[in-house]
Amino acid sequence: MLYHDLYKLNIVVSNKCSCGGAEDAYHFFINCTNSTNARNKLLLQRLQQDHFRDINTHLLLWGDESLSNDTNNYLFYIVQTFIQESGRFM
Prior knowledge:
This protein is mainly α. Helices cover 57% and strands 0% of the residues. The protein has five helices and no strands.
């Protein structure tokens, strides 16, 4: 779980990421400086290369029902790869 969620459940005393930002899904996927390399290499570059224009947390977490199952599965694979490569949950 991200610190934002843990903080809301009173499990941790702060919602701050180790980079200093409030660690919610948007922060983790879009602007955390701890995972810049993984994000550029595995997430943004590949999604932009495959012509995804509006990359947002809803698309990354839930997919898009207007897309095919194969495309949503591909999104899931990219997101899982990013999460692993970011090292955040190790």
